[in-house]
Amino acid sequence: MLTKYRPVVMVCLRKIILCVGSLLIFSTGFSQEFYFPGKQQKQSIAFKCIKNLIIIPVLVNGKGPYDFVLDTGVGPMIITDPSIIGSLDFSTLRKIKVSGLGIEVVEAYISQNISAEIGRAKIDRIPTAILKEDLFNLSGHLGIRVYGLIGYNFFNSFMVDIRYSENKIVFRNYDSKIKYRGSKIPIQIDNQKPYVLADIELPELGKVQGKFLMDTGASHALSLEMFGGGEFPLPQKKIKANLGMSLSGQIKGYVGRISKFYIGKFVFKDIISGFPDYETIAKKIDLNVRNGNLGAEILRKFNIQFNYKEEFMYIKPNSGSKLPFEHDMVGMVIYLDQGEYKHFIIGEIDENSPAERAGLCTFDEIIGVNFRSIDTYTLNDLTELFKSKADRSIIFEIYRDKKVIFKVVRLEKRI
After folding, report:
1. Angle made by CA atoms 250, 164, 195, in degrees to the nearest 5
2. Euclidean distance between CA atoms 227 and 233, whole angstroms
3. 167/151 Cα distance (integer angstroms)
4. Residues whose CB is less than 8 angstroms from the CB of residue 75 and which lie 6 or more positions away in sequence, other chains included
């Protein structure tokens, strides 16, 4: 529960909410960790930051590398494209059925006989959940082929230094010499995920403190999910929105701003926050363990050093810490249909949004933006363009019903 002016004690894209980790927890029966060969103590690797998500190369059973999301919000490794482990005999694997938002059940296979490598670090038997198909459509939403998510086993094996300002990760053995930078903040590792206590300020509530999942696999800034056993009070100015997806289900709710967010000694103002429909998510997620989700739109404003073993982190603001929080000013979701050719498709349009008023439709194919071929853009480029500046006009070249048409959308700051 959220309490006023004092700490809480709890029991254990748009944005993409990758909450499958909270749904696919299973007992491993042993403690496997990543290790360096020989006397190596540390390594650094580059990552791609797409829609705020960290994409790293991972070898699976000695093959690859394959692009994975590095996600503090998942426990076991999750493989969303089973083709990369085609040599496994699926008939010998335990099959489970998992509930997900927007659907009744999802089938997944459980394996503890898969090896993985990140850089030179290796784990011989990593607990893994294998989905029969890519229910997230991660590749479509991120614009590159993504094969899965990896989290707890990597973070628990090393002191992990995420340098968002450099698109680099440095990971070290715990017994190596470590120089910490910034401010030290306690975290709690609960059910293989990191939580932090932080304060928020709302006009209706004043300053309150809550427990938030730190989620590098969620591209939003903040999601406020539970207050006093029910939903958070909604801000006066808000818009209806599809907040993301979990498994193959859409999460409905509202988007608005909160006055302030405090983490350690650092304060952020006018933060974009999602307010998911409480009744929907409460049926699928145990909200007794948290008040909300702290995503990468805030996390990327710091360089962060995680120490899971001793349950603390150091955070240091980087060059992006002063950038304002902006929401999509077009009001639509675009995904990449990666068949023989790449097609940028409009997947969803917000009610009464600039996109809807301009006459754009779901399933329209975008073939050009501002008189440039769509091939010159990435999905990340378009995401940033859609948040760039109110009153800017964007010209879309659309292919619909075997005809090419043009639509002009004027960006609007809706919240």
Report:
1. 55
2. 8
3. 17
4. 21, 24, 25, 127, 151, 152, 191, 192, 193
Paired with 211 in beta bridges are 197
DSSP result, 93-113 = SEEEEEEETTEEEEEEEEES-
Instruction: List the structure tokens of 358.
Output: 């301009």
Q: Which residues make Cβ contacts (< 8 Å) with residue 309, sequence separation at least 6?
A: 156, 174
Write out the two tokens for 60. Answer: 């699976």
At position 284, the amino acid (one-letter code) is K
As given in the structure block, the two tokens for residue 283 are 């049926």
- Cβ contacts of 277-280, under 8 Å, gap ≥ 24: 277/231, 277/251, 277/252, 277/253, 278/225, 278/226, 278/230, 278/231, 278/232, 280/101, 280/251, 280/252
Q: Which amino acid is at 303?
A: N
**CB-based contacts of 4, cutoff 8 Å, min separation 6:** 205, 206, 207, 208
pLDDT tens figures, 8-40: 222 223 333 334 443 444 444 455 799 999 899
What is the C-alpha separation between 75 and 52, in angstroms, rounded? Answer: 20
| pTM for the predicted model, two decimal places | 0.87
Top pLDDT among 250 and 268 is at: 268
For residue 88, how many other CB atoms are within 10 A of its CB? 16
For tokens 């498709």, the residue is: 345
**With contact defined as beta carbons under 8 Å apart, do 53 and 219 qualify?**
yes
**Amino acid at residue number 338:** Q
The pair of three-digit structure tokens given for residue 325, joined into one six-digit string: 């929080």
**pLDDT value of position 81:** 87
* Residue positions counted in the chain: 415
